[in-house]
Predict the 3D structure of the following.
Amino acid sequence: MYYYVLESPSSRAVRQTYQKLRDTLTNLGIAGEMVTASPARTPTELTQMGISKGYSTIVAVGADDHIDEVAIASLGKAVLGIVPVNASRLVTGLIGTSDIRGSAESLKKRRLTTHSVVVIEPDSAFFLDAHILPPKIAKVSLVIDNKVRVHSYFNTLRIDRGLNIFIESAHVSEPKKIFGLFKRASETLTSQSTFHAKQVRIVTEPALALIVGNAKVAQTPLELRLLPESLKLITKRGTVLE
Amino acid sequence: MLKGQIQDGESTGPGTVVGVNVALSGTLKDQNDVSVYGMVDGEVVSEKTVTVGQSAQIKGPIRGKIITVAGVVRGSIDASEKLEVMETGKIFGSVVTKDFVVRSGAQITGKVTMGMDDDAAVETADSEPDPDNAEETLAEAQAEAKEESSLPLSDEVELKPDEE
């Protein structure tokens, strides 16, 4: 049986979407227990309650940060299903559908795929992409697998669930005078780097937040570790995985 | 209950790219392509291609299948299939490769060994010439060469322009 953890509705439209989802799930014969998160009951607590009740499939209904929280709480204990409501393309691309009907049908068909997650030492984790977004260009140092040291400046740093690290920077160089006469035009220097690791230590200057969706999940310095193929996820049949 | 279980393709990874404003130290090893545009102090190893961009500076050995150099490399290069040095490329170190392309303007300072299979290299190393039998060995080799080829034995080598 399925245990649905709904994100706290942010608008009337979302409430209507939830009602439509209830009807669709009932028609498909997979309507299980539905609980809604609130400040009093976090998605993590609700997920743990569902697992303790013996549910083997937990379905996260909501946007990215809610889905990520439910995913991590169900890690290794239950299969994860997703019904995206105001979720990003990252989520809809992952499960292979963006609408309520399509995701409900996927839940019924139960095609399972396994995915890695990233553990944030000591006791946290993330499943969807995490970002570090400094207000202005900042300095980052990485120690990858205790073998490679990387120093760079960055504007955005993204980490996906495979512990692939994407660093991007763009800064405008100041115009320079040549022989005190001519000014060389300023130019934008862009830099893109990609690294992948099994474990990595990330230090930024200054200390910055690690964000998943809109939620802050940790702060630098970070110790991250790959937990390969540890999450079982229900996806649409025929989905081409990246 | 579980109808089907497949694994996603995360293990393959996207390869490694060292950006322009990145300084890296240590052994950079990847099963996929490696591209360097910044500074690397250490070994660079790939089972596929290694691209050294124009802005790159590498201080250490490079190993890969196909290696393209447009930046500066201070260290040995071992390209198991092909090494291409672009106009802006500078290499200070020995080179071992099968196929070697050097563009006009490139700089190479070091010993270049090319066109030799691993087996042939081992064979050459095993059959060190014996000074006592040198004349005999030379005569045997010339006889074998005559049999295999109708071309006369000479020092003339025909040079062909690089076909690109």
